[in-house]
């Protein structure tokens, strides 16, 4: 019989691991903040990202994450692709900040729900670092539990993910008053671009 204390421990471990992602700098988190700050379908963006996260976590606890761990060549290839993706996002942000007009992500404020969904799906599923930082870590940490406890671990992780996907757009709304002018929006994009370049550099240093 499953001991409640074991289930609680597994859930809290999963929550703690998931909470770490709240403070990570990456395209997905910046997208969530952006959606809230610009009032561009933040609920749709958050829901799309969270549903994707559920699928990724399920894959992680089901063994895909462990597979990535035991095949170093696949892991390295995905890390390299992830670095390239982050650099591309950084360049896009910096180019937008340097444009004469309002930054690219601040234009076309009437983004449809469909466009918001597609944009978040691209940001999530085409970012290889998502598979390394979430699927792999979930697979590694959950592998120490039996099948019944892995469910509780996954629930804990997804609980923290829920906080992230709801909290970051809310944080973006707090920033909204300071992002009304084109200059402030450009500064945000410059900061985002520089932070993404730092992330790319740290990832590159880790695999060299």
UniProtKB/TrEMBL annotation:
Subcellular location: Cell membrane
Top-rank taxon: Bacteria
Keyword match Transmembrane helix: yes
Entry membrane topology: Multi-pass membrane protein
Main location class: membrane
Keyword Cell membrane (UniProt): yes
Regions annotated as coiled coil: none
Protein name from the UniProt record: Amino acid transporter
Organism: Mesorhizobium hungaricum
């Amino acid at each position: 019989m499953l001991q409640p204390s074991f289930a609680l421990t597994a859930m809290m471990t999963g929550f703690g691991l998931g909470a770490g992602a709240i403070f990570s700098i990456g395209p997905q988190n910046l997208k969530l903040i952006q959606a809230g700050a610009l009032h561009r379908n933040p609920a749709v963006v958050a829901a799309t990202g969270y549903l994707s996260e559920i699928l990724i976590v399920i894959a992680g606890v089901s063994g895909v994450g462990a597979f990535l761990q035991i095949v170093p060549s696949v892991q390295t290839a995905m890390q390299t692709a992830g670095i390239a993706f982050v650099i591309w996002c950084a360049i896009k942000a910096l180019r937008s900040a340097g444009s004469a007009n309002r930054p690219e992500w601040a234009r076309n404020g009437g983004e449809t729900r469909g466009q918001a969904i597609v944009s978040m799906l691209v940001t999530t599923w085409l970012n290889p670092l998502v598979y390394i930082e979430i699927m792999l870590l979930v697979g590694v940490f959950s592998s120490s539990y039996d099948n019944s406890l892995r469910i509780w671990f996954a629930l804990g992780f997804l609980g923290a993910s829920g906080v992230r996907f709801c909290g970051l757009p809310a944080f973006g709304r707090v920033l909204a008053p300071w992002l009304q002018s084109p200059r402030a929006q450009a500064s945000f994009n410059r900061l985002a671009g520089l932070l993404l370049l730092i992330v790319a550099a740290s990832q590159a240093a880790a695999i060299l």
